[in-house]
Write a structure and sequence with these properties.
This protein has 95 residues and is mostly beta strands. The protein has two helices and six strands; from the N terminus they run βαββαβββ.
Length: 95
């Protein structure tokens, strides 16, 4: 199964801006990999919460549409809230 996530680049980076994003039901994320510049992105929490419950989400290549450009990635790490069903941050790697 293939997954496509719509995202936007984010210019504000840091703890304060990430907290503001989470309060606005957005998830901060980063895409990185060898030989490429890291890209800081954000997307809606509702876009990721349901598809991340599938096991193949963690093992297949995902497509992230960043401002109209599609990037193929794989999930590297997810940080979750301690007791709420919330995702706080996701790390993706270029494929």
């Amino acid at each position: 199964m293939s997954y496509t996530i719509n995202a936007e680049t984010r210019t504000e980076i840091g703890k304060g801006s990430s907290r503001r994003l989470r309060h606005a039901d957005q998830v901060p994320a980063v895409i990185y990999g060898p030989g490429k510049e890291p890209i800081s992105i954000k997307f809606a929490h509702k876009d990721i919460i349901n598809i991340q419950s599938n096991d193949d989400f963690y093992t297949t290549d995902l497509t992230i549409s960043i401002d109209g450009k599609e990037v193929s990635v794989r999930v590297k790490a997810i940080q979750r809230h301690a007791f709420k069903q919330l995702i706080e941050h996701i790390d993706f790697m270029f494929v």
